[in-house]
Design goal:
single chain, 437 residues, alpha+beta, Cytochrome Bc1 Complex, Chain A, domain 1, six-stranded mixed beta sheet, five-stranded mixed beta sheet, 16 helices, metal ion binding
């Protein structure tokens, strides 16, 4: 009876996601190369105006790390028509909110307004693109802001440096070996001319995707978009030719230190393929199997049953060019790091030689169906997804069809992908240790 109830619940979830999650959108290009995506949803009187620029930390010059993230801050400084310090006041006084974020691959800006403020949102984003004021005063101000962010989020935050250590060892050639926030000495050394050149190269309409989502009249929105963004000159074409990494064929070891921790950690990191590949999506499922929730394999085994670890899990950091897959554990009591990784490896070998159970596989499918439903449950989430699928995957309709890829993944593929990528001779073993005081 219990199995029948579970099967019924799965069927209901599947039917709901099939029938309720189709996201309708329209996309086109302006003559200057800016890609535009429109999504109409009149269920609430709100509108999202967002722009995703195809520029991230990997686009920075050697010795000038942190530039992309710095621009996320710098381009709130003001424009020719928005005075310094007025951006956020203008948004909040019109009933809106806004934010921005940067990764190694892209930078994303967005505003959420009452739907009768659509024109304001479009004007503000066009101002950011057409009339930014990039001066030494703004650079100096944001330099201090970024330094404080780094102190709060990285330098003084426990376990915040592990990814930095992983990336600098996993990547030898590709710029993913750096960090998104960058090095402060690089930003200190950058000249105003370099900031201006970065803006001129990457903040151009042909390197941007504009998404307008929510309670809109499409015809009116198109006219406003043309009026505000159409006259902006096209920039030079951007070519990317990043160096390719050699395969990892021998195990690597490294140590990283953190003055903010008392308990060490062990990380096994593997370089994996682009997030655009099917294998990367299988690795997503493997991560969920190993570490999503207290009933997941690694948590149940190492934390609950054997009491060897305070925490254990898996992270699939999937990116545009490569991915980084990380297995980790924090030991409890006198447990040694090598004992943690031995137990983790035993579970990986089991995955490589046996099929996961039908019950666990169905649980995975339910998790991904649920994630799919949740990701498209708000106009804000839809706007982000539309931009991301267009900029990083080159296929906006993945907002509707990516779930079909996950549905088609088999237990055999989970076994084979684990066997293909998660081997001891293809990894970095990083000991993450307290720094001696």
């Amino acid at each position: 009876m219990k199995k029948s109830i579970l099967s019924l619940a799965s069927a209901v979830l599947f039917a709901f996601s099939m029938n309720a999650q189709q996201v309708e959108f329209e996309e086109y290009d302006l003559s200057n190369g800016m890609h535009v995506i429109l999504h109409q949803d009149s269920s609430a009187p709100v509108v999202v105006t967002s722009v995703m620029y195809h520029v991230g930390a990997k686009d920075e010059q050697p010795g000038r790390t942190g530039m992309a993230h710095f621009f996320e801050h710098l381009l709130f400084e003001g424009t020719e028509n928005i005075k310094k310090g007025e951006w956020f006041k203008m948004v909040s006084s019109n009933g809106g909110r806004n934010n921005a974020n940067t990764t190694d691959d892209r930078t994303y800006y967005y505003e959420i307004f009452p739907s009768n403020k659509l024109e304001l949102g479009l004007w503000m984003e066009s101002e950011r693109l057409l009339h930014p004021i990039i001066g030494q005063d703004g650079v100096d101000t944001q330099n201090e802001v970024v330094k404080e962010e780094k102190r709060l989020r990285v330098d003084n935050q426990p376990y915040s440096k592990f990814l930095e250590y992983v990336k600098e060892n996993i990547f030898k050639k590709h710029p993913y070996k750096g960090t998104t926030i960058g090095k402060m000495e690089d930003l200190d050394a950058a000249t105003l001319e370099e900031f201006l050149a970065f803006n001129k190269k990457f903040y151009v309409p042909n390197n941007a995707t504009l998404v307008v989502a929510g309670d809109i009249d499409k015809a009116a929105a198109k006219k406003m978009i043309e009026d505000y963004f159409g006259p902006i000159p096209r920039g030079e074409e951007i070519t990317r030719n990043f160096p390719k990494e050699d395969p990892i064929t021998e195990a690597m070891t490294a140590k990283g230190y953190d003055a903010n921790i008392q308990i060490p950690a062990i990380m096994a990191a593997y370089r994996t393929p682009s997030m655009k590949t099917r294998d990367s999506r299988v690795l997503d499922m493997i991560s969920s199997y190993l570490s999503t929730g207290r009933s997941s394999v690694l948590y149940k085994k190492l934390v609950d049953d054997k009491k060897m670890a305070l925490q254990a899990g898996a992270i699939n950091l999937s990116q545009e060019d490569y991915g980084t897959y990380i297995l980790y554990g924090l030991p409890q009591g006198d447990t040694q790091l090598k004992d943690i990784i031995a137990e983790v490896d035993a579970e990986i070998v089991k995955m490589q030689t046996e099929l996961i159970s039908e019950k666990d596989f169905q649980k995975l499918q339910n998790q991904f169906e649920n994630n799919f439903v949740n990701s498209n449950s708000s106009v804000e989430g839809i706007a982000n997804s539309l931009a991301r699928y267009n900029v990083l995957y080159g296929d906006t309709n993945l907002i509707n069809t990516e779930i079909d890829i996950f549905r088609s993944i088999t237990r055999e593929e989970i076994r084979d992908v684990a066997k293909k990528y998660l081997n001891p001779n293809q990894r970095l073993l990083l000991e993450y240790l307290p720094e001696a005081k």
